[in-house]
Amino acid sequence: MSLRTKVAILGSGMIMVSMLTLGSLVIVYERNNTLAELELRARSFLSVLGIELTESLASNRIEDLDKLITRLLDRDLATLDIAFVAVLDQDRRIMAHTDQARYGAMLDDRFSQDALESSIPLVSRETRNGNDMLLVSMPVSTALPGLPGIRWGTLVAGMELARAKADLARLGWRVLAMLLVMIAIAAGVTVVVLNHQLVRPVGELAGAAKRFAAGSLEARVRVRGSGEIALLGETYNDMAERIESYTRSLEDKVRERTRDLEAANAKLSQAMDDIRHANRRLEELATTDGLTGLFNHRHFKGLLETEVNRSRRLDFPTSLVMLDVDHFKIYNDTHGHPAGDVVLRGVAELLQSRLRGTDVPCRYGGEEFAVILLDTGKQMAMAVAEEIRSRIEATPFDGQESQPDGVLSISVGVATFPDDAEDHAALLRAADEALYAAKRGGRNRVIDAGSEPA
């Protein structure tokens, strides 16, 4: 094989490899950047959607969930490439779906299982029904100061990758066309050099090409004289300059897009923080008793209805404990309302220290309190109520010696669904009647619904 052929093969091959490598890097970078943008878009979408759905999930308003998801069909899905959005309860049952025919169905795929068990968002790329999708999940939960968070449900969205793949394919064709043009130019330059059989200039050019292919974009050849040799050197230098300029420009664009993305993320994060803070404050004002820090009467009634309905659906008992501070008016009249407020706060603290994290203590009104005991039967509820009563009786409150019995005590009524009532309203009446039975029986005691005090 002649020197011309060897140099032609070597030079053309090196130029081709360098161009293909650069093109491949551009395509890989764009692919990774596109997937990252899709993931960020899906997470941002689910974060905002989760905020809108939190109240409806917390209140178990299925119709409101369905209305919010239905609105997505008219606007957001097409622009975000989102194939579906599903709202799942803790049992993987669909509470709302962009495909309304799937309402009430159970999701048993691995991603849905992992999403329900995870307290953080998850992302997975899968193929479903022949379509390449990006699956994203987002837990929907809230938390109040001093209480554990409540997981209301999980959002799952599937984002189609067809448009992104089509964009990447078009980019690949453009890069390939550019590479073909550059390779053609390089081949022409090599032929000119070989026609003149100038080994030294060709060697210098080959050396410069090697350095350029190795990543030294500033590599250039020294141009001597005039004519075709000089033209070849100038052509190579011009090509290298354009490639370097394009590469630097691409790097600048990448840095600029990265800065823009970081700025957008910072603004979005700040907006989300402001929204979460406002929501927490609104929820506190709407649901919390200002004196004791417990849930207020309004929130208690909604929670009681929700939990009784859940008990009926899942077939487990729920108990309600109603308690009232005995002779509280006498204590207030004797020691003043500020001292009475101290007693009420003390009772609230004793309730919180005894109860489980899943139990819900509330201030029902005045000196009366209520406790919802989830998944708790009659026997256990009576034991809990008796322990609360005995703890309060044993606690030394200031000025309790002025009370009729010499101690500050409570009367307690207990009722259980479904043993004592058919719905939440009947359960509240049964517990309240048991409470007043305890008062009629002499106070400082626990009475079960349907029984009479000893």
Verbal overview:
The protein has 454 residues and is an alpha+beta fold. 59% of the residues lie in helices and 16% in strands. A five-stranded antiparallel β-sheet has the order 2-1-5-4-3. Strands 7-8-6-9-10 form a five-stranded mixed β-sheet, with helices on both faces. Strand 3 and strand 4 (131-142) form a beta hairpin. The radius of gyration is 37 Å and the shape is elongated. The termini are far apart. The mean pLDDT is 83.
Biggest β-sheet: count, sense, barrel?
Answer: 5 strands, antiparallel
Uncertain runs: none
Q: What's the arrangement of strands in the largest beta sheet?
A: 2-1-5-4-3
Rg estimate, integer Å: 37 Å
SSE topology string = HHHEEHEEEHHHHEHHEEHEHE
Give the total of beta strands: 10
What coarse outline follows from CA principal-axis ratios? elongated
Structural class of the helix and strand makeup? alpha+beta
Helix content: 55-70%
Distinct helical segment count? 12
The overall average pLDDT, rounded, is 83
The percent range for strand residues is: 15-25%
Distance between the termini: 115 Å
